Amino acid sequence: MMRNLMHSGVDAIARMSTTRTNYWTELVLDTALGAWLLAVGWRHLDGGPWLAAGAIALGLFAFSFIEYFFHRWMFHTRIPLFEQGHRMHHERPLGYDSLPFFLPAMVLIALTAVLVVLMPFGFALLLAGSITLGYIVYGLVHFIIHHVRFKQPLLRRWAGAHHVHHYHPDTNFGVTTPLWDILLRTRYVRQPRKAV
């Protein structure tokens, strides 16, 4: 009974997560959270602009790994909520499949709380705000890659790296950067055609 109830709850959240409303609500909520974290972090930072720039750069770098980690080890595993939603995205890449609008904000707030305990308040908020900014950029980039047909060759190659992932799901987990695919050897490498 409890298992069926949990399974139907996961199914309901997964269905809700495929709607435009969920996608755009998440974007607005996360943008407001990120802007608030950056503004309050800047106001409470004990240091100058170089320290702020360092916190923001560190946060964006950290997010690049978080993006890779979640895509490779959470979305392509058997965690029902993540796996089901991501499988739907692979089946319908032009859909609005995303996480439930409230989940990323909850995770980002929890991460912020941990960072505030571990480091100075202003720096922690700037770091969390830039991780949030990275997540927002990732969401928009991923949406654009699937909904825009680029004419410029560099942009086509950039978008193509993610499209390859849909045909070779064990490769190209990075959407915004290939850095971790290169370092962890999951970047797709075209195999040469065999001579006949």
From TrEMBL:
Any one GO molecular-function label of the UniProt entry: iron ion binding
Transmembrane segments: 21-42, 48-70, 94-117, 123-145
Membrane topology: Multi-pass membrane protein
Name of a matching Pfam family: FA_hydroxylase
GO cellular component: membrane
Subcellular location: Endoplasmic reticulum membrane
Location (main, coarse): endoplasmic reticulum
Cofactors that this protein relies on: Zn(2+)
InterPro entries: Fatty_acid_hydroxylase (IPR006694), Scs7 (IPR014430)
Domain Fatty acid hydroxylase as annotated: residue spans: 57-186
GO biological process: fatty acid biosynthetic process
Keyword annotations: Endoplasmic reticulum, Fatty acid biosynthesis, Fatty acid metabolism, Lipid biosynthesis, Lipid metabolism, Membrane, Metal-binding, Oxidoreductase, Transmembrane, Transmembrane helix, Zinc
Protein name: Fatty acid hydroxylase
Organism of provenance: Rhodanobacter lindaniclasticus
